Amino acid sequence: MAMATFYIVKDNSPQVHTAGLEQYVVFLCQHFANQGAKVYLQCQDKSHAEHFAELFWQVEPSVFIAHNLVGEGPKYGTHIEIGHVGAKPSYQRQLAINVADNQTTFAHNFAEVIDFVPCEENAKQRSRERYKLYRQAGYQLQTIEIQYP
C-alpha cells in the first residue's frame, strides 16, 4: 500500500522560515538517497526546481549528492531528480517529496510521498486538502513532527 507522510512544522522550529524548510528538504533528499532510494522532488514550477537544484550545489562537499533536473543528466538519472508541476520523472522512483503548493496528481506514481504541514494558516489549509486527497486515493497516512538533525 502506498504511504504518505506529512511532516508537521512547529511554530518554534527552524523550518518555520522558507530557508529553514528548504534546508530540511535538502537534508531529507540526501538522507533518503544515502539509504539507496531514488528520490523525486516535486517543485511548484521550473524556477522553483532550479532554485532547489542550486541549493543542492551549496552543501558541504562531504555531503554532496549528485542530482539533476528532469530532462537533464544521465539516462537513468541520479539518486535525486528535481521536477515541477507538469514535468514527468525520467524513470521509476520510489519516493517523492512534495514542495509544490497544492499538487497531488503526480503522487500516484510513487510508493511513498512526503509532504509538509506549515504553520501559516492558508498553507496549513492547503496541506489539509492534500491530506484528504491522499486519503481518498487510498494512501496509508502518517504525521511526524519535524526533528531537525
UniProtKB/TrEMBL annotation:
**Which organism does this record belong to?**
Vibrio tritonius
Protein name in the entry: DNA polymerase III subunit chi
- Pfam families for the chain: DNA_pol3_chi
* Superkingdom, natural source: Bacteria
